[in-house]
Write a structure and sequence with these properties.
With 589 residues, this protein is mainly alpha-helical. The protein has 28 helices and eight strands. It has a six-stranded mixed beta sheet. It starts with 12 loop residues before the first helix and ends in a 6-residue tail after the last strand. The relative contact order is 0.11. Mean pLDDT is 89; it is low at 8-14.
Length: 589
């Protein structure tokens, strides 16, 4: 995607320091924008299902129990992922208290740390302008923004995977002790990445560096990367966790390696399958609006491939390896290619950097052409959203279901339409003037507007995907000594918001969204406390020594009404999806 002359030698320190002094206020401005995009209003919306509520609760329980090796979710062992990421959130809870913003602080921190690492790498291998552009582009990319603001593993994983790749690349740019230090840093980062999400933490950087060195004709570098010294650092990080966890949970080695890693990659049983081309539309949408530049950039870059610098080749191979690897995998999710988006962000910065240096060159023509679809898309979006804003029935009448969910969004449609209109106007002015900086402003304008004047739309959407409002209704009527029980459901985030465990009446454990819980329930061992086979529900309820607050979704409403009728109590409608009944303690208990 890049078509440039080789990078200059960034060891010329005087020029670099002079450049930083000359651009210091621009640099400060870029850092402020990056900080706002990743940290701004972190607690502005509730925890989203399916991941945020669960991950925050795992960290909350870890903080309360001090069980740093075996995470638990709703009191049950949760070994779907290693404990490192949960530990970072638990430490945040211990320092700053339990809230949505604090739960997301870890992801935002690693997101910001990664763009700083990208900035430093690009300043070293390219120049200050490319470094600043890369930082802005990456922090205004939808996928990057989202995963920096979600309670999920991917951003922390991306940080350590990327740092592993950077370190191994820089090691071969140095000699002797410096090379040894960079490889040790790479081994350290690969070990921590493995503690975050298992084998993928070292597989991805290994593939990227191996294929890159193969193309560079220096496969001997892999021998230096895998010296006993580096292996010792990696194993010193990974083995204590793996051995300790295996002692406490003897079923973990089989589950972690065979089920969570190999079966996830090779089988469809995790229900995350998608076509091989799945990531093409994902990149188009989650790399918006920079993705409009990709088609022509790829064609031009290929024609000028002989002019690629070594760092250019690294980022191109990096993006391709990640996308191809996870396209082959039977398990596909958008977050899997997060580091590929980082690599594409740097390559896009190279295009803009070249265009700003030569406003009449080929790079400038590429971004000028890429602005045309941005203008067309923005105009169409502004017209469509504007029409809906003035007459919401245009869309509401066409919704076959969930019309009641549309009404809260109506006030947010007009600001969204005006935002697209502003992007269209900026794009039009940029095209008319052929001003490269104005074109860049047009590309970053919508993400900035999304997290400022359109933030309310995101908050409204989040409310539809969270258990916070449900928890508020339950807590208002739930006596402290009452046991909370769910019939074949567990609203995501409910234990976190209520600060208490929930007993689940279940057929197979699917309600906990944990593959490890399902794996353990399918073994021959008795079910652990906190989850009860649905076939034993009536007998189990009869043994309770405290009142029971019984919660059910609309699929189990009939079962809830039958139990309530039997106990002579009333069913309470909590919202459009959930109902509850407060069961008194059975006579004689």
């Amino acid at each position: 995607m890049t078509f440039f002359s080789p990078q200059t030698n960034r060891s010329a320190g005087d020029d670099d320091i002079s450049s930083i002094k000359h651009n210091r206020w621009i640099l400060v401005f870029i850092f402020i924008i990056s900080i706002y995009m990743l940290f701004g209003r972190l607690g502005g919306w509730p925890l989203l299902s399916p991941d945020e509520g669960r991950n925050a609760e795992v960290a909350r329980e870890m903080s309360q129990s001090g069980s740093w090796l075996v995470p638990t979710y709703d009191g049950l062992a949760y070994l779907d992922k290693p404990a490192f990421y949960f530990k970072t959130i638990a430490l945040s809870f211990s320092l700053f208290g339990e809230s949505e913003a604090v739960a997301r602080l870890s992801s935002a921190f690693f997101g910001f740390s990664l763009v700083v690492a990208v900035f430093l790498f690009c300043r070293k291998m390219y120049d200050l302008r490319t470094a600043m552009l890369a930082m802005l582009i990456i922090t205004t990319t939808p996928l990057y923004i989202a995963f920096s603001r979600f309670v999920i593993f991917d951003m922390s994983l991306a940080f350590f995977v990327s740092c592993t790749i950077f370190a191994c690349f820089l090691a071969e740019e140095c000699e002797d002790k410096q090379r040894i230090r960079w490889y040790l840093i790479g081994a350290l980062c690969a070990g921590i990445a493995t503690l975050i999400k298992g084998p993928v933490g070292f597989i991805i950087p290994t593939l990227v560096i191996a294929i890159f060195n193969g193309f560079e004709g220096r496969l001997s570098a892999m021998k230096r990367a895998f010296t006993p010294r580096n292996w010792a650092v990696f194993l010193a990080i990974v083995l204590p966790w793996f051995i300790g966890l295996s002692i406490l949970r003897p079923d973990f080695p089989y589950y972690g390696i065979m089920r969570e890693s190999i079966a996830r990659f090779t089988t469809t049983e995790f229900h995350r399958t998608a076509p091989f081309y799945y990531y093409a539309p994902i990149i188009l949408g989650t790399f918006f609006a920079w993705s409009f530049l990709l088609p022509e950039s790829i064609v031009v870059a290929w024609k000028k491939r002989k002019s690629w610098s070594r760092a250019d080749r690294l980022f191109i191979i990096w993006a391709l390896v990640v996308v191809v690897f996870f396209s082959i995998s039977q398990s596909k999710l958008p977050g899997y290619i997060l580091t590929a988006i980082v690599a594409l962000g740097v390559l896009t910065a190279r295009v803009f950097g070249k265009a700003m240096n030569d406003t009449k060159g080929q790079a400038a023509r590429v971004i000028w052409h890429g602005t045309m679809p941005l203008l067309l898309f923005s105009v169409l979006a502004a017209i469509l959203l504007g029409a809906i804003a003035f007459d919401p029935e245009l869309l509401k009448s066409r919704l076959t279901s969930k019309q009641d969910l549309f009404d809260p969004f109506i006030p947010a449609i007009l600001p969204l339409a005006l935002s697209f209109a502003f992007v269209a106007l900026l794009s039009m002015c940029a095209l008319w003037s052929r001003n490269t900086r104005l074109i860049f402003a047009a590309f970053i304008s919508f993400p900035l507007l999304l997290l400022t004047i359109n933030f309310n739309a995101l908050s409204i959407y989040a409310e539809t995907r969270s258990a916070r409002s449900l928890a508020e209704k339950i807590s208002a009527t739930l006596p402290p000594t009452t046991e909370l029980v769910c019939i074949e459901c567990l609203p995501n985030g409910l234990p976190f918001y209520l600060k208490r465990l929930v007993t689940v009446l279940s057929r197979d454990g699917n309600e906990l969204t944990s593959n490890y819980v399902i794996f353990t329930l399918n073994s021959d061992n008795p079910w652990p406390e906190g989850i009860v086979p649905i076939a034993q529900a009536h007998a189990w309820l009869a043994t309770r020594t405290h009142p029971v607050y019984l919660l059910a979704d609309k699929n189990q409403l009939a079962a809830l009404k039958a139990i309530a009728l039997e106990r002579g109590v009333e069913v309470i409608n909590l919202n459009s999806k959930y109902s509850a009944a407060l069961l008194p303690t059975p006579t004689g208990n």
